[in-house]
């Protein structure tokens, strides 16, 4: 597995900019739309569960579970962007992730932030 299997984030050519900061240098906020989020819950694959159990005995990274978490975070981001776009936003400020166990059957990942309309400063 290469480094690209463990990355994430938005498409650099997306029409919705997502940042973890309170503002975007060179842009001003024209309108605050409000909180948006993308949520997904994923169960663990049986094969990765067995592999994780064996790997935990000898130590090391659980690559199958890592890849599943990356895919889950990316899906939550896609849903966040879809919601911001649907509400008329072109950016999400202060984006964060929240990750929790979902009733011992999977992992819940929520990407959330503030949808806004930004414009480049003149």
TrEMBL record:
Coiled coil: none
Alphabetical list of InterPro entries matching this protein: UPF0145_dom_sf (IPR035439), UPF0145_YbjQ-like (IPR002765)
Entry-linked Pfam families: YbjQ_1
Family from the record: Belongs to the UPF0145 family.
HAMAP family named in the record: UPF0145
Protein name, as recorded: UPF0145 protein GCM10010449_00830
UniProt source species: Streptomyces rectiviolaceus
Lineage, uppermost ranks: Bacteria, Bacillati, Actinomycetota, Actinomycetes, Kitasatosporales
